[in-house]
Amino acid sequence: MNVVIVVFGISAGLSAAYWGRYRFPVVRRGSVLDERLGLLNLYCVAVQGVVAIALALSTNMAGLPALAFAASGLLLAAVPLYLSKRRDPRLAAPRREGSHVNEESALKLTSRWPYTVVYTAGYVALFSYVLSLGIVVR
Question: What are phi and psi of 110, to 5 degrees?
Fold first, then answer.
């Protein structure tokens, strides 16, 4: 078995194991464990960005290698986005029905959604490339 495929499987499994704090209800937002799991996910995304190129090169450009290069670009572009926190788009129109509405608390609810969107698009491209390896006749 190709070493690149093994590294791909391990890093994809680790990244899928941490899909956000909602998978682990005991992890509080902003806790040390939450930050460490986020860094684990960041490292897996960076490894997958390098693995996407290595996978295309190790298969002699079989399948649709443009998907692998696009996946690599998206995954590596997501790494610096990890540092930016933006206001959560789910709060674009907050409800003002409650009696305890606090304007500042709504502004504090930020997330790393740009990072998540970009690396998810990278994973979609990467898995599409892996699927194209089995579909395209060599």
Answer: -110, 165
Buried b (16+ CB within 10 A) or exposed e, 57-80: eebeebbbbebbebbbbbbbebbe
Q: Strand 86-87 vs strand 110-111: parallel, antiparallel, or unpaired?
A: antiparallel
pTM of the model: 0.77
52, 69 Cβ separation under 8 angstroms: yes
Structure tokens at 59: 């298969």
Q: What is the pLDDT of residues 93-131, one digit of tens each?
A: 655 665 555 555 554 677 788 888 899 899 999 989 988
Q: How far is CA 62 from the centre of its chain?
A: 25
Which of these, 21, 30, 74, 27, lies nearest to 48 by C-alpha position? Answer: 74
Residue 80 near residue 51, CB atoms below 8 Å: no
HSE-up (13 A, CA, CB side) for residue 22: 1
| Mean pLDDT calculated for residue range 30-35 | 80
Residue 76 is predicted with a pLDDT of 96
